[in-house]
Write a structure and sequence with these properties.
The protein is an alpha+beta fold. The chain has helices at 3-45, 84-130, and strands at residues 51-56, 59-63, 69-75, 78-83. A hairpin with a 2-residue loop joins strand 3 and strand 4.
């Protein structure tokens, strides 16, 4: 392998590293969103009882919901009114979609890791030949 080919392989290795980092970050963000959505479902299920709500800046409010409807963001900053059971169903469907997307990111991440290992082995062999 000549120097130009070695440089090309190294550049591809660096590109794959950045892709892997991006996939890992996106999968982590999806996991956080799934956890947040699960927390929202749990909060909706407990709405009948007195609950403590954070309103920001470390301020908490004890409250009891008197309505059987909630506002749910359905995408593109569009908010619709839903009954609590409908909101829970909607959020569970959202979780399924998020989990599917997360699985795709993890799968892509694993493919990239495999390619990275191949490139690393190739670069190591080329380095040993130079030494």
């Amino acid at each position: 392998m000549n120097e130009k080919q070695l440089q090309q392989e190294f550049m591809e290795y660096q590109y794959l590293q950045k892709q892997a980092e991006t996939m890992q970050t996106q999968a982590s963000q999806l996991r956080d969103t799934i956890n947040e959505t699960n927390s929202s479902i749990q909060a909706l299920e407990n709405l009948g009882s007195e609950t403590i709500y954070s309103i920001g800046s470390g301020v908490l409010v004890k409250a009891k919901n008197s309505s059987d409807k909630v506002l749910v963001e359905v995408g593109a900053r569009v908010v619709v009114e839903k009954t609590i059971p409908d909101a829970i169903v909607f959020l569970k469907e959202r979780i399924k979609k998020l989990e599917s997307a997360q699985e795709k990111y993890v799968s892509t991440f694993e493919e990239i890791l495999s390619k990275l290992q191949e490139k690393e082995a190739l670069l190591q062999k080329a380095r040993e030949k130079v030494d």
